[in-house]
Amino acid sequence: MIVIKFDESAKPMSELGALVITCGADALMRAEQLDPFHYFGRHMQGDWGDLCLEDCKLNEDALINGDRLMSVYNINAEQKIWIITEADRSVTTILLPEEY
After folding, report:
1. Domain limits at 33?
2. In which order are the strands placed within the sheet that holds 91-95?
């Protein structure tokens, strides 16, 4: 796992803890020349990406109840990344679904 520092001036909708990225997600980001902070920024602002409405509602409830937050972003037709903020808000992880 790789620990990433982010711009402290950004205004998150919730505490998100330490940001980490798994080796698989890091490799995908490098191969596709993508910026993980783009996706983290979306997650941080409450843009849950490619989630169904029911899962978006779960995230909205989680902001109130202190449950886990999850975003899904389709990178292309075959690949996606997940971003998960743990319920205790200690860590947010960027990962591939198969790394869960």
Report:
1. 2-99
2. 2-4, 18-21, 91-95, 80-85, 69-74
Lookup result for tokens 């449950």: 67
Rounded CA gap, 9 and 77, in Å? 33
17-to-31, 34, 63, 89 alpha-carbon distances in Å: 27, 22, 14, 5
Which residue has 């198969």 as its token pair?
Answer: 98
pTM attached to this predicted model:
0.85
Strand duo 18-21 + 80-85: pairing = unpaired
Segment 41-86, tens digit of pLDDT: 999 999 999 999 999 999 999 999 999 999 999 999 999 999 999 9
